[in-house]
UniProtKB/TrEMBL annotation:
Name of the protein in its database record: Ribosomal protein S12
Coiled coil: none
Listed Gene3D superfamilies: Nucleic acid-binding proteins
Gene: rps12
Keywords: Mitochondrion, Ribonucleoprotein, Ribosomal protein
Amino acid sequence: MSRPNIIQWFKKCKGTKITKKKSVGLRGCPQKKGVCLKVFVCSPKKPNSARRKVVKVRLSNKIRLTAYIPGQIHRLQEHSQVLIRGGRIPDLPGVKYRLIRNKLDLGGLSGRKTARSKYGTKKPDKVC
């Protein structure tokens, strides 16, 4: 059996590419609990115009990061406990995490018909 030449050897050594994690602050967990440090609003990137609700959170592993509050109304204050998940907001630079509605201190939205699972809304009662 002959030895491979140098080009064949380098081709074999390449192997699979190592992919970079997108939500580094969660440390491989699907969700993490945290405490709100500051609740504020900020404006999105150029073509869009709005007031996006954002919160600074200190996680249980002492990491501080910014997360987006989905939905219209919230009652978060400075020391509220929240559950955080991955998922970036395209028009807010530096915001790579979202809060989970209807868990811990962040309540769900009421009166929502579509995409209820994203906003923690219960199924409405059937009226005959």
